[in-house]
Amino acid sequence: MKTNLKSRLFLMLVSVCLLTLIFGTLVEAETFNFYVVSHGGPGDPFWGVVMKGMKEGAEAITKGTGDTINATYSGPAKYSVEELINMLNSAIATKPDGIAVTITDPAALDAPLRKAIAAGIPVIAINVPDSRPEAERIPYLFYIGGDEYLSGKKAAQRILTVRKPKRAVVTIHEIGHMGLELRAKGFIEVMTANGVPAEKLATYLDPTQAIEILKGYFAKNPDTDAIFTLGSIDSSYVITFLKEQGLAGEVVHGAFDVSDEVVHSIKEGTTLFTISQQQYLQGYLPMQFLYLFNKYKFLPANDILTGPGFVDASNVKDVEELVMQKYW
Amino acid sequence: MKDKRSKFYSSIALLLRIHPEFGALLALVLVFIVFCFTATRFLSLESLAGIVTVASELGIVAAGITFLMITGEFDLSVGSTFGFSAMILALTANAGIPLWIGFLLALAAAFFIGLINGIITVKYKIPSFITTLGTLMFWRGILLAVTGGFAVRYWGTSSFLNGLNGHFLGEFRISSIWFFIVIFLLNIILTKTPYGNSTYATGGNKEAARVLGISVDKVKIINFVICAVLAGLAGCIQFARFKSVDPLRGTGMELEAIAAVVVGGTLMSGGYGNLIGTLFGVLLMGMVRSGLIMSGAPAYWYQAFIGIILILAVITNTKLKGWAIK
């Protein structure tokens, strides 16, 4: 009888221990430390949106799961690959649970990232992928960001759905900027394939000079009736040019990036659309995916394209409000 | 006969010595003739208006640089001053402050920037190249930090802004009137007043100028201020047309303005040059840009052409001047 009681007590004790162990594991909150390291400083409005996405992505997990996400953003105030590498090395040194990084200079980032990956730190590329051939690429998990070349192609296709232009021109304000050149390339290829003569026009940063360059181009090529601008700076002076010359509505204007001026111009009907790479997602999604990978080893089958996303007459009203709230 | 010929040469030599703008005028005429044949609709009023419009804003900045360069100094910060002043006008306009007050505040800011450039250069004996390289970065940095990289737009309309840079005579813009007023006034100051003589003397031979009782430091500081205020004025004039400023506004303008001044025959070492040369220099820059596009040349070539013209103009000026002095 006594032994029976003893063994029962022992069994109960073991059960309690086991249950505590099982449930304890189940409810124990975990903490994950993630870093976003980019070439863009926090003062840049584009990266301000990414930071907002990162912060809200981390908060959503913390609220929804009980686990804690500590998310840290670092990026040099002024474009500098050296500083980007230093920041990345500092992040790696803390042995984080995940890093999202822009592969702005694949050769320079190669060594530190390979070291981090070998040490078991999950790495996701954001905004700029490793552009080298597949065999040479840094073996990060996958890429979350836009596709510049595809964006240019989609812009041309979108204009072609409205009408087939007689001639199309792409303004480029920062010559040699890889992203802008790829957007222009995609656009020109689609236009040319559809029998529309299209070319790049270097307009530089100064708006007065840009407008005279545009006037000169239109004097030389008066049949031009489609124009694609690659960023908010050239969109701004092209909108002024179209209005000053009475060409608003006659020349189809497709833009890139979302600014209040472009939003206003879409509402007025001067601009047909603008393309966004929806960079909020480039901050938000890495938090989600790094968490899901750490927790359950989930991985998407492919890269995740956050852009090109279109803003046009159909959604401009909704976006206008969101631009104010810095989601776009 | 021989006597007559040598008299003719010596009169040309004298003409070249007192007219440093001759080389730029020659280049302007040559380029004009070439484009008349190659560029579509180059000989039209719109095309002329376009060239003058581009030349005007750049020219107002370049006029200030000419003054300063004759004193033997540089200002690399004009592009940042241009953007900074325009931003002040934009921010004050959006804050509901009357535009003319915002305009005066923008000019006052430019005045302040010029004063700092001058005082640092003169009092600490730092080359102005370094001082203004520092202030170029500083003011551009402030501009980026304050705006967070966003462009600032003023949505209102105003007759004040139209007065600064509206239309007149079809395609022409009021900025060109401001430009010609600036060139006219500065030219009178430089050629007809004792202050003009002091400016030349300060850049030519500092010690001789001191002996003559000219306050070299004071002249330099005043010219730094003139240069900055004109850059600020040009920034406000451009804002008046576009009603928006991005934080990169004016980037690279300093080099283009310096190139125009040098093409116009002003010596970088100081003591020699004039505003008529600068007028031709900026018109040449505007003409090359428009002409190349109207000729169907890829716009990517513009900088390469300007580079060649700059070097050719300086070689021509140096040769002509060397020959004239002989």
Could you provide a short overview of the structure?
Chain A is built from eleven helices and twelve strands.
Low-confidence stretches of chain A: none
Q: Say what the CATH topology of chain B is.
A: ABC transporter involved in vitamin B12 uptake, BtuC
User: What helical percentage do the residues of chain B reach?
Assistant: over 70%
Number of strands of chain B: 4
Number of DSSP helices of chain A? 11
Q: Which radius of gyration of chain A do the C-alpha atoms yield? A: 26 Å
Known CATH architecture of the largest domain in chain A: 3-Layer(aba) Sandwich
Helix-strand category of chain B: mainly alpha
What fold name goes in the CATH topology slot of the largest domain in chain A?
Rossmann fold
Characterise the protein shown here.
- The complex is a heterodimer of chains A (328) and B (326).
- Chain A has 328 residues and is α/β, with parallel strands linked by helices.
- Chain A has two domains: 31-146 and 278-297, Response regulator (Rossmann fold, 3-Layer(aba) Sandwich); 148-276, 3-Layer(aba) Sandwich (Rossmann fold).
- Chain A is built from eleven helices and twelve strands.
- Chain A has helices spanning 2-27, 45-65, 81-93, 106-118, 148-162, 178-193, 207-220, 232-244, 260-268, 280-296, 316-324; strands spanning 31-37, 68-74, 98-101, 123-126, 143-145, 168-172, 198-202, 226-229, 252-256, 273-276, 304-305, 309-312.
- In chain A, the strands form two sheets. Chain A has a six-stranded parallel β-sheet, with helices on both faces. In chain A, strands 7-6-8-9-10-12 form a six-stranded mixed β-sheet, with helices on both faces.
- In chain A, helix 9 (260-268) runs antiparallel to helix 11.
- Chain A starts with a helix and ends with a helix.
- Chain B is 76% helix and 2% strand.
- The longest helix of chain B is centred in the C-terminal third of the chain and has 27 residues, at 216-242.
- Chain B is globular.
- The two termini of chain B are 21 Å apart.
- The chains are: A alpha/beta (328), B mainly alpha (326).
- Chain A binds chain B through residues 43-46, 48, 175, 199-209, 212-213, 215-217, 219-220, 232-233, 236-237, 240, 259-261, and chain B through 39-41, 44, 46-47, 50-51, 53-54, 57, 144-145, 148-151, 153, 175, 238, 241-242, 244, 246, 248-253, 286, 289-290, 293-296, 298-300, 302.
